[in-house]
Write a structure and sequence with these properties.
Radius of gyration: 21 Å
Bound molecules: iron/sulfur cluster
Oligomer: single chain
Helix content: 40-55%
CATH class of the largest domain: Mainly Alpha
Structural class: mainly alpha
Strand order of the largest sheet: 1-3-2
CATH superfamily of the largest domain: Helix-hairpin-Helix base-excision DNA repair enzymes (C-terminal)
Amino acid sequence: MRDPAVAAVIEWWSANARALPWRATRDVYAVWVSEVMSSQTTVARSAAAWERWMRRWPTVHALATASLTDVLAEWHGLGYPRRARDLHRSARIVAASGWPDDLTQLPGVGAYVAAAIRCFALQEPVLPVDVNVRRVLDRRLPGGIDIAGDPWRAGQAIMEFGQRICAARPRCGECPVSDGCPTVGALGGAAAARSAPRARSAPGPGAASLPVRRRRPYEGSVRQRRGRLLGRVLAEGVVELAADDREAARGLVADGLAFLDDAGRLRTPD
Ligand code: SF4
């Protein structure tokens, strides 16, 4: 790598990389599943789920022959089940017509996932820019980077560096590229305080430039009610709806995850 900061991040990663099962493969389908799973689910949960998934449906053709009900049941617990629906729809398109040149033509494949497949499966010099990579670029490599030469390792390294070191709350005290970092200077003592295990200081003035996104509470949300209702439908096949199930049921039907029969009961999609 020509950029010494990128080379240093790769060196840090080589000594500290997490063991993730999908890093052993360059198969397009396997990488695609891993990226979709881990996009909104923790890496630890995704890793176990990915291994189960790949044992059950090891190829895109195997997934294409599965029922949507089985796919949703396997996915259940990972959250955001439209991801599973889109994987299934896309698998059927690929099984029928092959992989499109432009992967974003597949349902659920956006610019990030397409770039991740190109980098982590096809090993093309295309950096997939998720929120963690974007943060690293903004803070430490604002001029952008060229990952030609070793795109797979560079992409993996920068992504994990953004997850674990240059995180929303940066661990500047452990950072291998803190020398010359313009952002650590802007943060002053705040970043160092955040990286210390028992730090409790108030954010410094520079912290305003590094917002920490707050999640909406899951408890009591429509998303929680939808998840519970989908779980019941997948387990029981058919569910008599209570009055307070109706909003969640409408959402599941609109998303193609379940359907209402003539008696107004919620059923699995196939
Ligand atoms: S010094 Fe801090 S802000 Fe700069 S790259 Fe390292 S972790 Fe990120």
